Structures
1.
Amino acid sequence: MWRLNESILGDNEEDDLFGGQQALCSLSPLQRIYGFAACLLAGLLCMFLSIIVFIKPIKFALLFTFGNMLAIGSTAFLIGPVQQLSMMMDPVRVYATCIYVGCVVLALICALLIHSKILTLLAIICEICALIWYSLSYIPFARRMVSNVTIRLFDTEI
């Protein structure tokens, strides 16, 4: 309770790996790392299993999308869900986040409601491209570098 009061009153000047949110969470730092690792490994396992069922695009889309959401959500264990959402809505990556979430929803709609294999595969391709572009937003100047390489290779701009 003392740590919560310090955090609310601002007396705690401690800046650590977890962004000062440690006192507001009931998980210890070790439990957070275990949660992050378990969620990330489960996401990677789902993505790997989706490759095995690639012949069936609907199952592929479900496993791949679920794996992506687990992998991206795993960082919420480290920095907290509020900080994760605020980083996703940062002006630098808000468009990439919206496009990625839209592609995830589109892939799930194509897989679960429409049951179209071709549309599901197209939505998954869009989802992968959006995930790459979203991930590049966390690396300084990565999107600009990819744009410059694309311009030089294909004489076009993203």
2.
Amino acid sequence: MVKVSFNSALAQKEGGKKDDEEGKEGGSLGQVLIVPADGKDPEAVVPVRQRRAWCWCWCMCFGLAFMLAVVILGGAYLYKYFSHQESGVYFCGIKYIEDGLTLTEPDVGAPAPRYQIIEENIQILEEEDVEFISVPIPEFADSDPADIVHDFQRRLTAYLDLSLDKCYVIPLNTSVVMPPKNFLELLINIKAGTYLPQSYLIHEQMIVTDRIENVDQLGFFIYRLCRDKETYKLQRKEALRGIHKREVSNCRKIRHFENRFAVETLICEQ
């Protein structure tokens, strides 16, 4: 009987070789596998590096979605901010009698009535219930250029005197200012760009009172008109039709119209 035996040193050497080869093969893969404790197939386990790549991918997707939402919301806000600048602007004028109380036909031989003209740019946002009036520098009349906002939702009117670069805010006078829907119908009926029928002039006097510090509380449209400008409250005196002689000083005059008649607004310092 022949006895076959192996050299233990040789066996250890071969075993060490096998371990080295397995270690090299494992190093060439460059991945660490998570071996489950329940004895599942290790090949089905996702490598750590691959799991990290998926996490980064999801994070980038959420980040891009968030940035896109910010861009969309910011664009909508900017559109609302600038959309009224050019679209739907009417250029209209009104002829009115400055020094008379009636529009009756003059007697034979009497001098013809002296008419004045006001021209202005008008825009109406019917859904927002807002009117924008822009009065340019008049050619002949003694009046100041101004931008005016009538906000029917806030029930406020704001005057921006372009000569002084100051804003004045007062409660909306609905007996003088025609509602946006009616005013728009009037402009369409007379075909914007022509003159309104001959009319008359009424006078109203405003007194400057307190300064307003937080114009952002006056609504979006008035805030846009008056931001970064000195803004004051106004107190209205009773509007009078025809000539109203006053002994006042330091007043600014704005002539405009938001109805079938013209309005002369005097803004006076106390």
3.
Amino acid sequence: MATLGDQSATYRCKNCQNPVAFRSELLSKNYKGKSGPAFLFSHVRNIVTGPKQDKNLMTGLYTIAGIFCSNCGEELGWKYIQAYEARQKFKEGGFIIERAKITKEY
């Protein structure tokens, strides 16, 4: 686990404890996923990406790809590939991980 400054907290897959993101990569906690609250991260690790698909979400139409834990295959959330509305372009390349799918370790 990283211990440098802002990266001291690590988010891990709740199913297998595989590290998936650092606290410093957390952009927002104000998102909704399939199962409830979700977080937006700038970067993630130890994931595999599913096929791209167009999906109409609460804030518009996006091309997204599901993201899964590389160790256990648990679906964690999705990656924003493309936003079709100009106001939502900031999400492109970002990752949504559902709060219920991860734990935080200090």
4.
Amino acid sequence: MAFHTFLCHRSPCGGGCDSLPARPVRTGSSPGPGAGPSTWRAPARNERMKRGSEAVAEGQVMGPEDLVYDAARGVVYTGCEDGWIKRVTLNDSVADSVVENWVNTGGRPLGLAFDHNVVLTTHYDGVDVAHDGTIYFTDASYKYSVKDSVIDILEGKPNGRFLSYNPATNKTTLLAHDLYFPNGVALSPDQQFVLFCETVLMRCMKYYIQGPKKGSIDKFCDLPGMPDTIHYDGQGQYWIGIATVM
């Protein structure tokens, strides 16, 4: 396997999700006086989806789930289904990239976060660390294990949770429950809210951790498919991996 993902990006200031466009095709006669409504359809495949992309570590990573990028060192870390967190050193040529077995977790690393030069991994589905050290993470399903996660998606019931952990007090707090397979976590740059995706409902939600709306949840955006992980790029955009386009 290699790193492959469909990314859509969204500005924290609002607006729709900016995915790669598909040209609509109109079938039937043109609308006119007395004419019935025309039918619009999108092509089944977006030929522009992989334009400008390259496969990295092809054949050297097994089921990469999440990843974090250390820009200072030019290194990508990703959690794989065999338990290894792989370290991929990027070079000018993709073919020259170096893949190493970095740490074996003994489980299934799902969420990764990079904080103060430390890679944080969790067996939960998304994780990010606030400036005050609080760790925010999602639990996609309290009912089913990782190997049975597809059953949870097919069941379509709200078995997920959003939580926080305070390392100073060793306390875990349930922030939201009855979520539809929450997956991926990203803090806003001003630390006012946390974003998490709901895979089954194909949307991204905003949980306020500061300000007058603290503790409340709003919809951040709808998505063109089932999201899997979200990251803020430090340049005003959130990048969301779409596992299945609908």
